[in-house]
Design goal:
about 475 residues; alpha+beta; five-stranded antiparallel beta sheet; four-stranded mixed beta sheet; globular; transferase; transcription regulation
Length: about 475
């Protein structure tokens, strides 16, 4: 109640406020005058509010608020399910496919998701389809029939009914109200919201400094990369702005919009709660000045867990430049070519299936690391899950069992690919340098002290790395 009365944007996406008298639901920061408490009801998801008969506020657009940080902080069944739903799994594989990925029965998944979210997987996917439809309506010139199919609807009638029910406007009315000129088909310009503050320095600095030529680049003040998506490929350009990330997507198949958006948000850690993270880390007197100097640091993650795992192995015991060179060679030899009229991107990063035919003798690296890479590729093709919905501890155990996988590699993958906010790399050279600079002591002392940073040790890592003067910690020049 206090969050609504204060119009506190930090709680957008945590819950939704429904007004009983108007049958409208809002985000907590909605600028309109708050209703009387007796006329308010609260829902844990937009889908639950829609299922209860409420429609989205036209003023605050609650469907476009940042996602709940809970789904990226936890590794339980519901959190994993929510990450997979956001990635479009229900639309492409159905609830049975979702349950199969999670390793539970359909009934158990539906029961647990409904208990926490107030809506089942189908309703949550429907709410996401409605938001996708709105984005396509407002940002493209697609005919409504094509748009409905691209948004994941089985028929134009279902599309029309859903849009009217959720937004209280017809698709044509939504398009007429949209500001700006629709982009050409396949080119989308989106605003990805986040909770303030956000420090873009390490986020974009890291991605650009470690970027693989042909797959990633920095151009015109934006980080650009290719995406491997369920129905085709895409190219995205991401640029930090005040209050949002400007996102330009070019997709081979518009049905991939939800997955592409979800992966970009995950890449930039946009659903994090930076205030909660910073408040916890600032309780350590040695970290407090670092947090005060750069509040809102995020953890740079990945759009593809398998890709990052391969790159982590290529980066073992070599410089960042050498790791990029190794990766670039793999891309040229085994990546899928793509066209990029707007820049210099040339390939998708090779899939595990494409790397399965890799000749180890062509790799300019020690024999032991070749063996490690081939073991990883075999595990990935055999079903090792490093996706958004993976079980973090099971993935750690599977990786640790592979030859050549020590704590640094496993925790790097846990932090960047799995998204564990508590992943920590005490053996990392950057952490050792920071420990010496700040007077944290040796490795054992750092590990002991890090207990007070939990569950945000991955964020503490970003602050510790920033004590070094490296390009990886700085925002690239425009």
């Amino acid at each position: 109640m206090r969050a609504v009365q204060a119009k506190d944007a930090r709680f957008d996406g945590w819950f939704y406020t429904a007004v009983l008298t108007t049958k409208i639901y809002c985000r907590p920061s909605c600028p309109v005058v708050p209703p009387k408490p007796r006329n308010m009801s609260f829902y844990p998801s937009a889908a639950a509010a829609q299922q209860a008969g409420f429609r989205a506020c036209k003023r605050c657009r609650p469907d476009a608020s940042p996602g709940s940080p809970l789904w990226n902080e936890r590794a339980d069944l519901v959190a994993r399910a929510m990450r997979l739903i956001a990635d479009g799994v229900v639309d492409t594989e159905g609830v049975r496919g979702l349950a199969a990925r999670l390793g539970y029965s359909v009934r158990q998944v539906e029961r647990q998701v409904f208990a926490e979210l107030g809506a089942g997987p189908l309703s949550l996917a429907r709410a996401q389809r409605a938001q996708t439809a709105r984005t396509l309506i407002e940002t493209t010139a697609l005919p409504m029939t094509e748009l409905a199919l691209a948004a994941g609807f089985g028929s134009i009638r279902t599309f029309n009914d859903t849009v009217r029910e959720v937004f209280a406007l017809s698709p044509t009315q939504l398009r007429q109200r949209a500001k700006g000129r629709p982009a050409a088909a396949g080119a989308l310009v989106l605003r990805l919201p986040y909770r303030k503050p956000l420090c873009p320095d390490n986020l974009f600095g890291h991605l650009v400094a470690t970027g693989v030529p042909g797959v990633e680049e920095w151009r015109d003040g934006a980080y650009r990369r290719t995406l491997r998506l369920p129905h085709g490929h895409g190219v995205v350009a991401l640029k930090p702005e005040d209050g949002h990330i400007a996102c330009r997507l070019t997709l081979a198949d518009l049905r991939d919009l939800p997955a592409a958006t979800s992966r970009c948000r995950r890449l930039l850690d946009l659903d994090a709660d930076p205030v909660a993270v910073d408040d916890q880390l600032a309780t350590d007197p040695l970290l407090a000045p670092l947090v005060a100097a750069a509040p809102g640091r995020r953890v740079p993650r990945t759009v593809d867990g398998a890709e990052f795992a391969v790159r982590a192995v290529l980066g073992q015991q070599v410089s960042t430049a050498a790791a990029r060179t190794h990766a670039a060679r793999l891309v040229v030899a085994h990546g899928e070519p793509v066209e990029d009229p707007e820049g210099g991107l040339t390939h998708l990063f090779p899939s595990p299936a494409a790397l399965a035919s890799l000749d180890p003798e062509t790799l300019a690296m020690p024999r032991s690391r070749r063996r490690t890479l081939l073991a990883l590729v075999t595990a990935l093709t055999d079903g090792l899950d490093l996706s958004a919905g993976s079980d973090w501890e099971a993935a750690r155990a599977a990786l640790s069992a592979l030859p050549g996988f020590g704590p640094w590699t496993v925790e790097s993958i846990a932090m960047r690919a799995l998204g564990d906010p508590d992943a920590f790399l005490p053996t990392d050279l950057g952490i050792k340098y920071a420990a010496e600079t700040l007077g944290l002591g040796g490795q054992a002392a750092v590990v002991a002290r890090s207990a007070a940073w939990r569950p945000w040790r991955a964020y503490a890592t970003q602050h510790l790395w920033a004590t070094g003067d490296h390009a990886i910690n700085r925002m690239p020049a425009a």
